[in-house]
Write a structure and sequence with these properties.
The complex is a heterotrimer of chains A (about 290), B (about 300) and C (about 230).
Chain A (H helix, E strand, L loop, with lengths): L1 H13 L1 H32 L7 E4 L5 H12 L3 H9 L4 H6 L2 H5 L5 H35 L4 E4 L4 E4 L5 H26 L6 H19 L3 H4 L6 H5 L24 H28 L5
Antiparallel strand pairs in A: 2-3
Helix pairs in contact in A: 1-7, 2-4, 2-7, 3-7, 4-8, 4-9, 7-8, 7-12, 8-9, 8-12
Chain B lengths: L2 E12 L2 E12 L3 E5 L6 H8 L7 E6 L2 E2 L4 H5 L2 E4 L11 H11 L6 H10 L15 H13 L5 E5 L7 H16 L4 E6 L2 H7 L2 E6 L2 E7 H4 L4 E8 L2 H10 L6 E4 L4 E6 L3 H10 L4 E6 L3 H10 L10
Parallel strand pairs in B: 3-8, 3-9, 6-7, 7-8
Antiparallel strand pairs in B: 1-2, 1-4, 4-5, 9-10, 11-13, 11-14, 12-13
Chain C lengths: L1 H13 L5 H15 L3 E11 L3 E2 L3 E8 L3 E6 L4 E4 L4 H9 L3 E11 L2 E10 L6 E9 L4 E9 L4 E8 L8 E9 L7 H4 L9 H8 L2 E13 L10
Antiparallel strand pairs in C: 1-3, 1-12, 3-4, 6-7, 7-8, 8-9, 9-10, 10-11, 11-12
Helix pairs in contact in C: 1-2, 1-3
Classes of the chains: A mainly alpha (about 290), B alpha/beta (about 300), C alpha+beta (about 230).
């Protein structure tokens, strides 16, 4: 099993395609950082427009912490494509290349093969998120400094103390990793049905785009569906940045407004991962390899 | 002599196609077992079932005396295969591919073993080149190198000469002979071309529409003097019983409702004729059919209908 | 906090006090405040606005006569009532005349105070009216209410401790009215439509905002460079 995992990782990281994602993430982040560094003032002014007409914000809100949040908000919508690029290719790519039949005829069970492949795509996904964290969080912290984090939500604003932010990012990245592994599991599941990688990649993205639109639409008939869409739960990393207040309306440092929501969402995502991977194994075990 | 492969009643039913129908055959240790049939005859499906790529609908496959379904891992560790096109990872070099598949087959080869292997298939000079840059023949040789790297007892080559130029075909042929004669490997090689099989095979199985037509020693089957004789008698059942009890039973091939088939040398026909009379078999006709080669060419060269023989 | 000192200090120095009995009192208060050339203080700031979730933050406040003021919050970001400082300050500086009227007495935090209404004579002044509650025996402003043209009405309530001699408060509570805050979910990229729990929804309806600063440490008249306020 360990050999299989090593080999799968070796294959992933020997392919040029793998690095597209890392380059794309780096390019996007560095461009945003460059833009904000040069012209962050006007962007900050836009953000610092008075809130509610009665309050104004004093200080440098555009620090590394907020920039990371903005980037996560933007990027985590697109990272699924980069995850699908590899995960949805795990089986279909081998079928397409013709190497699947050779793999299957080796002395490993199909279950082991799939688990190793899924594990390898998970490692890839996690590394992509670590890369994202290094660039979006640590690089931003280095370039823009740290400080309190000011966040505007739709019906209130949140101010997090400087020393109350980093652990939230740790949680958010762990959660985002879980969300992206769910995407990987979906792509992986779809990849067992195809003999080319484009199909499953497009299918994975279509599912995510479709579900995300349903998640975003505020139409009552769809609202009932939302809790059942995994895309709704994928953005629960944001919950780490909402803080509880006490009766005196003081934010309680170190608290999370809806910890239960995070736990629920995480459970939903874990169940999806188990479902997708389990389904992949179940179907693939019985599949005749004709590629 | 150990039976390396034993297939019994193997059947694979796809939705509305019976790709392999009640196929039985066996391969002995040291055989170069030629698997002949037209494209679509069921060769690939059978080979894929032997390699666990396809699950049989029914029937039994034993390799090295073990049930394939139950001892898959042990068995496959001892099998090397090239299945149809010799596809490998194009973004890796020949050496890297070889090492990767060696590890997948359960061994950790030294650099020397890997280089020796590449040397044997004539790719030592291109060891570090990406497979992307290889010709079809080179890929095929690498594929065989990969099939051999873990020193398996049984080597399965599915249409190894497909898409190769004459030189490439000759190379593969020589490699098969080398593996068989010098390294004492058991080899199953499939092809739709008789010419390829007859130059290397020690035993031959011919299948058509998923069913076995003929199985036998290559030397005999390809002997131009060998003929299939078709008998029609007043009472085939009686005739068959008589023949089975006689020395002619060894010559009995297969039978149809209306005919009895015997494979024999043309020179034996007169004595068969007199023996039939002695056994009081009332003969309606005795008809020498084509030689096996003609017979196979007839199958493989066109869509001409051929009667199906059953055991 | 910054609002408070400016209003009090500047307003007192620049207003021409017309109501006789009140002028003397305001002048005395001004004199007391004038002892302080500069100070720096540490404190805790608490923001209580319905739509703001902010923790109690440590702040450092710097002041230098006549009108230099700086509030530095640990972590760098503070949420303050709009115009709480600049509007009041600038308007008061540029206008010279005020009318100070006696408007009765009141008890604030158990202290008897005189109510003084200060009206800017200048029509263009941003401040419409300021009401001071002055604790006469101690010469301390206990409460101030300022109504501005643009930014509504602010109320400041002060309590004093160790630095009462300088007229420097221990605690300032700044109250003001807030308006609704709402951003479209599309902008904030919130997908979920979970309405807030009732209790919180109730809380959000409270339209009175408060900023509270409790000072712990004053360093008075030790000198601060002008450049610090840039």
């Amino acid at each position: 099993m360990w050999t299989l995992i090593q080999i799968e990782l070796y294959k992933i990281f020997r392919r040029p395609r793998t690095y597209i994602a890392f380059i794309a993430v780096a390019a996007l982040i560095i461009i945003i950082q460059f833009g904000l560094k040069l012209d962050g003032k006007s962007y900050a002014d836009f953000l610092m427009k008075d809130i509610g007409g009665t309050m104004e914000i004093d200080g440098n809100i555009l620090n590394g912490y907020l920039i990371c949040y903005i980037m996560l908000q933007l990027l985590l919508v697109h990272v699924p494509l980069l995850v699908a690029l590899i995960a949805a290719d795990m089986i279909s790519g081998e079928a397409n290349m013709g190497t699947l039949r050779l793999l299957i005829s080796k002395p490993f069970s199909r279950t082991e093969l799939l688990l190793a492949k899924f594990f390898a795509s998970t490692v890839y996904t996690l590394l992509l998120l670590v890369w994202l964290a290094i660039l979006a969080l640590f690089l931003s912290m280095w370039i823009f400094g740290t400080g309190d984090m000011f966040l505007m939500k739709s019906s209130y604003v949140v101010l997090l103390s400087e020393n109350d932010v980093f652990w939230r990012y740790t949680g958010a990245f762990v959660f985002a990793a879980l969300a992206m592994v769910t995407v990987a599991a979906l792509g992986f599941f779809l990849s067992i049905f195809a003999e080319n990688s484009i199909g499953p990649i497009v299918a994975t993205m279509s599912v995510i785009v479709f579900f995300t639109i349903l998640s975003t639409l505020n139409i009552p008939i769809f609202n009932a569906l939302k809790p059942y869409l995994f895309t709704t739960h994928m953005i629960s990393w944001k919950e780490f940045f909402d803080i509880q207040v006490n009766d005196a309306n003081e934010a309680i440092v170190g608290s999370i407004q809806h910890p239960q929501k995070i736990v629920n969402s995480a459970l939903v995502l874990v169940l999806h991962i188990i479902g997708f991977v389990g389904g992949s194994i179940w179907i693939f075990k019985k599949k005749d390899v004709l590629s | 002599m150990q039976q390396i492969v034993s297939v019994k009643g193997l059947t694979k039913q796809f939705k509305n196609l019976t790709a392999v129908n009640n196929l039985s055959f066996s391969v002995n240790e040291g055989d170069v077992y030629g698997f002949l049939g037209q494209n679509g005859a069921g060769k690939s499906t059978s080979i894929r079932m032997m390699l666990t790529l396809i699950e049989p609908s029914s029937g039994q496959i034993e390799l090295f005396g073990m049930d394939l379904a139950r001892h898959r891992r042990e068995i496959l560790r001892n099998v090397g295969a090239v299945i149809e096109k010799p596809d490998v990872y194009k973004y890796l070099s020949a050496y890297e591919n070889l090492e990767l598949f060696a590890r997948l087959s359960g061994i950790k080869p030294s650099k020397k073993i890997l280089m020796d292997q590449l040397e044997m298939v004539g790719l030592a000079g291109r060891a570090n080149d990406r497979v992307k840059t290889f010709s079809q023949g080179m890929k095929q040789r690498l594929g065989i190198g990969i099939a051999l790297v873990h020193n398996p007892q049984l080597i399965v080559l599915d249409e190894p000469t497909n898409g190769l130029d004459p030189q490439g075909i000759a190379d593969i042929r020589n490699l098969i002979l080398h593996l068989s004669r010098d390294l004492k490997k058991t080899i199953v090689v499939s092809s739709h071309l008789l010419s390829e099989i007859e130059q290397v095979a020690t035993r031959v199985l011919i299948i058509d529409k998923g069913q076995k037509l003929v199985e036998g020693n290559a030397a005999e089957l390809f002997d131009p003097a060998q003929t299939i004789v078709e008998l029609q008698t007043m009472d085939n059942a009686f005739a068959l019983t008589q023949l089975k009890a006689s020395p002619w039973s060894a010559y009995l091939q297969a039978q149809r409702n209306t005919a009895i088939l015997l494979k024999l040398n043309r020179t034996e026909i007169p004595s068969l004729h007199s023996d039939l009379a002695a056994m009081q078999i009332q003969l309606l006709s005795l008809q020498p059919r084509h030689s096996l080669e003609d017979f196979f060419l007839q199958i493989t060269s066109g869509n001409q209908h051929v009667d199906t023989y059953t055991n | 906090m910054r609002s408070f000192l400016f209003i009090v200090a500047l307003l007192i120095s620049y207003s021409s006090i017309q109501a006789q009995d009140m002028t003397a009192l305001v002048t005395k208060v001004k004199a007391k405040l004038d002892q302080v050339n500069d100070y720096e203080a540490e404190g805790n700031m608490k923001t209580d606005v319905s739509f703001i979730k902010a923790p109690i933050g440590k702040v450092k406040v710097y002041f230098k006569k006549p009108n230099k003021f700086r509030l530095k919050k640990e972590g760098g970001i503070s949420l303050l009532p709009k115009g709480g400082v600049s509007v009041n300050m600038s308007t008061i500086i540029t206008t010279s005349d005020f009318v100070a009227l006696a408007a009765g007495e009141a008890v604030i935090d158990g202290f008897k105070t005189k109510i003084v209404k200060l009206l800017p004579s200048n029509e263009a002044s941003e401040i419409v009216i300021t009401t001071l509650y002055i604790d006469e025996p101690n010469l301390l402003v206990r409460k101030a209410i300022t109504t501005t043209k643009e930014n509504g009405t602010y109320e400041m309530q002060m309590s004093y401790g160790a630095y009462a001699n300088y007229g420097l408060p221990q605690k300032v509570v700044f109250s003001f009215n807030t308006k609704d805050y709402k951003l479209p979910k599309g902008i904030t990229l919130e997908f979920d439509d979970n309405e807030k729990p009732l209790s919180e929804a109730q809380k959000l309806k409270n339209k009175k905002g408060r900023v509270e600063i409790t000072y712990s440490n004053y360093v008075v008249n030790k000198g601060i460079a002008d450049s610090f306020f840039k």
